[in-house]
Amino acid sequence: MHTDTTPQTPGRTVGFDSHPDSFTAAVLQGQTPAQAVVENIYHKVPLKQLTAWAQKHLRADDRVVLEASGNSFQVVRTLMAAGFQAQVLESCHLGKLKEAHANNDRISAVRIGKAYLAGTAKLVWLPDVRTQERRDVMHAHRKAVKRFTQAVNRLDSYLSDNGVRLENSLTQLDEPTALKHIGDAREWSAPKWSIIESYLAEVQSAAHIRQKWERAMALEVIADPILLSLVRLTGVRDIVAFYLGAVIGDIQRFKRAKSLVKYFGLDPAFDDSGNEQWSGGIGGHGHKMMRSVLMQSAQCILRTDRPLAKWGRQLMARKGSHNLSAAAVARKLTVSIWYLLQGKDESVERIDRSMSLKLGKIISKVGAQKMKEMGTNRKQLRQQMEYIILKGRVYSVDPNRTSRPERSSKMTTLAEEYGLR
Fold it and tell me: Over pLDDT 70: what percentage of the chain?
């Protein structure tokens, strides 16, 4: 904690422009952007001196605000650990305020501070350590999937350039037999075969990394009763459940289901200004990545015989739009996710065939070697997962629901009981 004995003047805002190795801070006195006076600017201070700098120059009631960037959360955690107030501002709004003709770290620090005082820049929720770790894994997995897709496309393009199409084998390029399939397709010269081997090595390396992260996510879902209960929802498997846990974090920050729907950007856009009225789709706002994931889940739901799928197909028949129907299903799925995470649960009496198949696929990602390290086997792990789902909190999707279930005060500790933590 700092020991500064300077008389404290309320209202000081510190605009903070952070970089990987240094930061610039502008100390502003005033309650509005028009009243704000720059007391001091600390330019290009080494980031490793952050705690010492804060203890020397900041007061207890100062509020440090910075733009969301790569290390912004770490900076906030460091300042909070030293006893200071710090918050992250949404980068989208701040980016629009940047001057096109003149910009440097000093200007940016002052601009960030004034944007906070104006009250127009949204605050970004600071994830707890566990949620931050989940987000790191989520981003690593998405990069691995992207790398795998790019590697497959490169190999597919090269094979196509040489008159070879292996449409049925492209999804199996990460298997050891892939090289034989390609070799049997035609005669290859030594240089071309070397290129194919190089491309295929990239595919298999990317597949290995992707499988590593999927195994890690599957283990986390199995170990967390709340994430595992999400798997009960049609269209939600281990990856989607893990993504939801990483993106949502603390569900209590969403007071209503509609707030979560809006956060994901699944509410339609509209413009009702003047005499003109316009309503459009769901693109252009909200959490783009999670919206895309839930739309994929909705597409899967529409291919089932569940009540929500039947409701979605009826909507599609009336509106004549598959995308509109999928968006509506994704929205109802999001509402169900909110209820489940809030602990508003209903009992599950049995594990049906669909749920059993889903659990089997999750267990397969864990692998025999990892189960051996955990001191369990496939049968035991399945029994543990089924028990958690039957006794943990769940929520069944009913598109015709009008009443809200009572909130359950029961918090399951089944993961600790089975030693999965």
Answer: 81
Strand ranges inside 184-330, DSSP E: 270-271, 278-279
CA pair distance 163, 142, nearest whole angstrom:
31
Query: What is this structure's pTM?
Result: 0.82
- Distance, in Å, from the CA atom of 381 to the CA atom of 418, rounded to the nearest integer, reads 10
Q: Which of 110, 66, 67 is nearest to 91 (CA)?
A: 67
8-state DSSP, 418? T
Angle between helix axes 190-223 and 353-366 (nearest 10 degrees) is: 120
Helix (H) or strand (E) holding 17: strand 12-18
If you write DSSP's letter for every residue of 117-185 in order, what string do you get?
HHT-SPEEP---HHHHHHHHHHHHHHHHHHHHHHHHHHHHHHHHHTT---TTTGGGTTSTTHHHHHHHH
Q: Would you state the structure tokens that stand for residue 69, as one six-digit string?
A: 């960037």
The per-residue pLDDT for range 196-207, each reduced to its tens digit, is 999 989 998 999
Supply the pLDDT for residue 344. 76
For residue 282, the surrounding DSSP H or E stretch is none
Helix or strand holding residue 233 (H, E): none
Tokens of 367: 């692998």
Helix (H) or strand (E) holding 14: strand 12-18
Enumerate long-range contacts of 317-324, CB under 8 Å, 24 or more apart. 323/281
The class of domain 12-124 in CATH terms is: alpha beta
Q: How many Å apart are CA 281 and CA 248, to the nearest integer?
A: 23
Distance CA 129, CA 379 (A): 33
Residue 21: CB atoms within 10 Å: 10
Rounded distance between C-alpha atoms, residue 24 and residue 40, angstroms: 11
Pairing of strands 85-89, 63-67: parallel
Question: What one-character DSSP code corresponds to residue 31?
Answer: S
Buried/exposed 252-268: b ≥16 CB within 10 Å, e otherwise: eebeebeebbbbbbbbe
Burial code (b: 16+ CB inside 10 Å, e: under 16) for 84-109 equals bebbbbeeeebeeeeeeeeeebbbbb
If phi > 0 it is left, if psi is from -120 to 50 it is alpha, else beta; for residue 64 that is beta
